[in-house]
Amino acid sequence: MVDANAITCVRFIIEASNLRHRHPPNLVVELARHTNVRFLSLIVKTESRRERRLSDHFNDFIQEYEDDLLGQDDDDVQIAHICEPAYASGRVCVNGLVEALMSECYRSPNLPSIIDAMLHGQDSEYDKLQLFQVPCPKVLVGKSFGESFRRLLRLNYICIGCWHSDNGHAGPKATPAYVHTNPKPETELHAKDLLYIVGKPTSTIDI
Questions:
Q1: Which interval of the chain is the signal sequence (predicted)?
Q2: HEC sequence for 129-158
Q3: Which of the chain's ends, N or C, has fewer CB atoms near its CB within 10 Å?
């Protein structure tokens, strides 16, 4: 199977960490096929389950994965990986995404300029609008994303998403840190969240 070596290495690293009662290291794994991203969700789904060997969970997971693929249409399979915890938490890089981006750039010649401007800004606009990240202001903690978006917009900031830290729970309730783009208006913001803002860069936002 393509990516088998990478997936096996991750299994061994996590299993060795669990046997030594140590927290597994932060890993970023490059995969060739996006359909294999689901296997890497073991990083967050079985990290705290130590009553069974990780390899046992892995075998069960493979069978579950193959069963789920049956009956799905091709479009669902193509985008399913973006919903996996391993991908959402930034632990997996799929090199096929670069190829897809190059294809889109060929069909849309202005796309590279747009992406570069969003990521780096322009030299002549260094103090103007850029994409940057700031801690969630205290007055917005506990508020909905919709309300926070409106309050930031009044200050000429556009919030396009947020970074949520892990919830600190163990077992099935554990969730990894992840980036949430375009959250639903009712999404609640927390004290440890970081906001992705388009506007004049600053380290803090006073509201």
A1: none
A2: CEEEEEECCHHHCCCEHHHHHHHHHCCCCE
A3: N
